[in-house]
Amino acid sequence: MRPVELNGRSYRLPARPSVVICADGFDPAYLDAGLAAGVLPMIARWRESGFCTIADAAMPTFTNPNNMSIVTGAPPSVHGISGNFALDRDSGAEIMMTDPDMLRSDTILALMSQAGVPVAAITAKDKLRAMLGRGLRIGDNATCFSSERADRCTPAEHGIENVEALVGRPRPDMYSADLSLFVLDAGIRLVEEGRAQLLYLSLSDYVQHGHAPDEPQALAFHHALDRRLARFAELDAVVAVTADHGMNDKALGDGRPHVLYLEEILNVHFGAGAVRVICPITDPFVRHHGALGSFVRVYRQKGASLAALVDAVRALPGIDRVLTREEACAAFELPHEREADLVVTGDRNTVIGATAAEHDLAGLAGHRLRSHGGCFEQRVPFLLSEPLNADYREIAESRTLRNFDIFEFALNGVVP
């Protein structure tokens, strides 16, 4: 069968079940802690007999841009999704970047579905479902649904019904580890029943936002993940795991979040209404991070020159990079027409917000703030259950891998 061609890459159709997992927030520190604690026996086996390395995620290190990069095999400059939340430069409206019409590329999933491969795309949060489902032959040989709305699936919209019965338990709570485990269990059942040959399973980072790598809750969750990886291996599936971003502690020594409210700071300095700051981490489920991440966009509205804004931001503690629109697009492979006047990133320990009134931190409920978005959360695991063939070993040794190489490696790169 002819391979699928997309964005300069060629993908072989899967000869056996192939499962690509985006383990949201799976920082390499969780991998190291789990291996040290002995709770990742399947992954430990892959380190010996498969392929395990560290790759770079796309910037900004948020959910939507990286999931879209993974399923298109390309950076945001190609597919157009550069955050979870954005400001429309033409209308001035603040919008969620979840509309499939905003996606400027086909997906590997869609082209595989159109080529006759039974495809399943399952997400934890429904915000991704429409974009992942774009172009899928729903109701023919494709399934696309979320844990969040597993109780509302219909054959016409999702290609499946009675998902709770399929998995054997009710739809999980949005703020729970089981939201991710439900995704994995649904994927396992589809493979067991022969209903999917290529699967993309996108998890939630609820656990990683709330718990450091060596905490019992994090170890227990990753042990549960490892058990599901083992089950996929028992089903003779090729399994590939990467992440959309890492995760870092963003709190001060006394436990308070380390936040710069950048819009407030700049509007005090340059005058009311001088800038608008957009936080692209924003999505409908912010209880565990308060819509605070380490990447923001600054839009000039009046008054200050761009050079003066750059100098003022660079002088602030906790800032990593301050880039103009052109610099950010070149450095981070972002779509120019969707970019702000300035892009600002925080360091490993700092998040950046707009104004204190726009960020509700009550949901942290005593937890230290853990978040992502900047360059310090760009390193992610890149794991395969099988060894690489000679061609892909050479590729892996010749350059830094990206998380959006994962489909190519899973479909083309493993030893039969």
Return the CATH class of the largest domain.
Alpha Beta
Number of domains: 2
What is the helix tally?
Answer: 16
What's the end-to-end separation, in Å?
16 Å
pLDDT averaged over residues: 94
Structural class call reads: alpha/beta
Strand segment count? 19
Q: Return the CATH architecture of the largest domain.
A: 3-Layer(aba) Sandwich
- Large-scale geometry: globular
Please identify which CATH superfamily of the largest domain we are dealing with.
Alkaline Phosphatase, subunit A
Low-confidence stretches: none
Indicate the CATH topology of the largest domain.
Alkaline Phosphatase, subunit A
Query: Largest sheet, order of strands side by side?
Result: 4-19-10-3-9-7-8
**Radius of gyration, whole Å:** 21 Å
Quick structural overview:
32% of the residues lie in helices and 19% in strands. With 416 residues, the chain is of the alpha/beta class.
